[in-house]
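chain below, 320 aa
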Amino acid sequence: MRAARLVSLLCLLQVRGSMNGPELARELEVSERTVARDVLALAEAGVPVYAERGRGGGYRLLGGYRSKLNGLHREEAEALFLSGVPGAAVDMGLGEAVEAARLKAAAALAPPFQDAPQRVGQRFHLDAPRWFREAETPALLAEIGRAVWRDLSITVGYQRGERLVRRELEPHGLVLKAGVWYLAARCDGTFRTYRVDRFREVREGEEFVRDETFDLAAFWDRTAEEFSRSLLTLDVEVRLSPTGLRRLRGTVDGPAAAEAEAAAGEPDEHGWVRTTFRAESLQVAFSQILALGPEAEVLAPEPLRQDLASAAERFAALYR
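prediction:
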């Protein structure tokens, strides 16, 4: 256990340059006294580690000292940081092992390649939860991926309905969402999202200047939220009991639930409130209201009220 912690401490100092006692204690989940003892143990083992006192001080390695594992090329370094799915690793109880491996790899990279994790994060994003479709392998994924990694503009033929449209794109990143690949690219100065399986032609162009302020994960989160909102086309007016209002977030779309809570009127003498939430369709709203049970009364639309009344009659007959 201590040997692994000493290796982690060494890697942290090699990657971060300088860290003080409290920072190391938080990272290693030990006390500052244990950190001091571990630093002393490294020094006694011949590692050139020393402490700087005063403002901005901390522990650091003697300039130029590096661990011996190195020699990775940039593509190999970037592939290394694509080799795992952190969320799944945590679910399987392997989170600490994965993080330790990433830390050792980062410490081993030669200085020109220490930005490999950042480059990967800028160009690839995994949105792990399932989202409507099964896995697929687009025919032109390799060509598009090469352009993303090399910051090359591309001329594409993109299937939009029945038409094949031509676009000049500056690809900034790829997103894998539940087996479906999406390209985030700049087109005429605006960032847009494209389904990779709808590309029919791809031709590489010249290298372009990447927008270094572009945050792929944040862009995708906004895009996904806008897409989810576009599906919510049905207004459902309801009365909710206090329990129904609490359960709303676990029953309907998150943003829709938040908007419904914010729009809720004053409680009546029984504590019930009136509000409106948005749903995808009558069928989806029907299932959501059933999940709320007697804690919700639908006021509109009328077809939904009729469907629920019919279901209530069938329930009553079934349990008579």
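The longest helix spans residues 302-318. The radius of gyration is 27 Å.
thats it, cya
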